[in-house]
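Notes from the 1:1 (GR / supervisor)

We went over the backlog. Supervisor wanted to see one worked example end to end before approving the batch request, so GR pasted a single chain during the call. The sequence is below; no edits were made to it. Supervisor asked that the structure be written out right there so they could see what the output format looks like.
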Amino acid sequence: MADEIKDEAQPQAVPAEIEAYLHSLLAEKKADTLSGEIQGKLMYDLYERFNDYLLVNTAKAMPEDKKDEFDALIGSDATAQDIQKFIRDNTDYSKVVSETCDEFKQVFLSGK
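Structure output shown during the call:
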């Protein structure tokens, strides 16, 4: 389905705001006219890329004295909620997300 970002092997809960943001990127790129199946795969791929981009920018925004702890947490069995709490406690997360969205949009729309 084009309205959901899905991978049967690894289902993920995608925040509605991020899904809407990614749909808007596809619309700007005129890729929202593709078939539902192709669009769904594209959305999943786009979400994975955005998520990786966000993780890198979050790591860059992490205070130096928290980077080792953050790396250990990412490589552990920590829950997504534990990781998210750590990030929110140690970065200006809303600023990181906003800046990441702006940068990702520029990269995606430029085709680089």
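Supervisor's comment: Residues 16-107 form one domain.
Batch request approved.
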